[in-house]
């Protein structure tokens, strides 16, 4: 069976950046399972998988436009430390949900100064070409329930899902409910306080 719209697809993948540095791999863990054609995957990789079948192995280079998009300087901003309320020990790498002019977006702390915290709402891989090595493990027809829900009802790796794992995966989904992982506390369910909304704000696609 070939990969087409409304297929449930299971893959293993390695993701490297343009310099060849390994970003993440599913080969040592659970494969990623996604619903093809439901925007569970970054466009460039999903397009490359179209028509492939179980057992196929492919190397795919995805440019930024078909990956996590260009890097937007406006999504990087300085936020007063006071905006984080009583949250202590803010360090680079922490992720928060910030209220921005573009709505709620996940942001990541990139720098902490004396009384200012620099946060970045770009996906960590925004503006970069991505190199994938992919092995197709299984292809099947998705169930009616899976199609209705827009995702596969199975546990899998974080590569590209619609955000149920979430920014953890680097292949995918546009809707990070937790990463991506795949952007004010280190708990993304907590909203930023005043001052985190900034100007311009902060994908498993983003």
Automatic annotation (TrEMBL):
InterPro entries: PPIase_dom_sf, PPIase_FKBP_dom, SlpA/SlyD-like_ins_sf. Belongs to the FKBP-type PPIase family. Residues 6-83 form the PPIase FKBP-type domain. It catalyses: [protein]-peptidylproline (omega=180) = [protein]-peptidylproline (omega=0). It comes from the Bacteria. GO terms for molecular function: peptidyl-prolyl cis-trans isomerase activity. Also involved in hydrogenase metallocenter assembly, probably by participating in the nickel insertion step. This function in hydrogenase biosynthesis requires chaperone activity and the presence of the metal-binding domain, but not PPIase activity. It is an enzyme of class 5 (isomerase). The gene is slyD. It comes from Shewanella schlegeliana. This is Peptidyl-prolyl cis-trans isomerase. Signal peptide: none annotated. Its EC number is 5.2.1.8. PROSITE patterns: FKBP_PPIASE. It is found in: Cytoplasm. Keywords: Chaperone, Cytoplasm, Isomerase, Rotamase.
């Amino acid at each position: 069976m070939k990969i087409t719209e409304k297929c449930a697809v299971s893959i293993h993948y390695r993701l490297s950046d343009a310099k060849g540095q390994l970003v993440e791999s599913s080969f040592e863990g659970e494969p990623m399972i996604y619903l093809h054609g439901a925007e569970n995957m970054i466009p460039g990789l999903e397009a490359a998988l179209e028509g492939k079948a179980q057992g196929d192995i492919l190397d795919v280079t995805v440019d930024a436009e078909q990956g996590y998009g260009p890097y937007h300087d406006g999504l990087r901003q300085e936020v007063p430390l006071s905006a984080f309320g009583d949250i202590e020990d803010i360090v680079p790498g922490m992720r928060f949900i910030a209220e921005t002019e573009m709505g709620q977006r996940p942001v990541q702390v990139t720098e902490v100064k004396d009384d200012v915290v620099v946060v970045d709402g770009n996906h960590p891989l925004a503006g970069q070409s991505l190199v994938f090595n992919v092995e197709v493990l299984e292809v099947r027809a998705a169930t009616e329930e899976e199609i209705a829900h827009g995702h596969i009802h199975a546990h899998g790796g974080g590569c590209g899902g619609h955000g149920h794992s979430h920014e953890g995966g680097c292949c995918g989904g546009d809707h990070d409910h937790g990463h991506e992982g795949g952007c004010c506390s280190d708990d993304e369910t907590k909203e930023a306080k005043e001052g985190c909304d900034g100007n311009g704000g902060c994908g498993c696609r983003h």
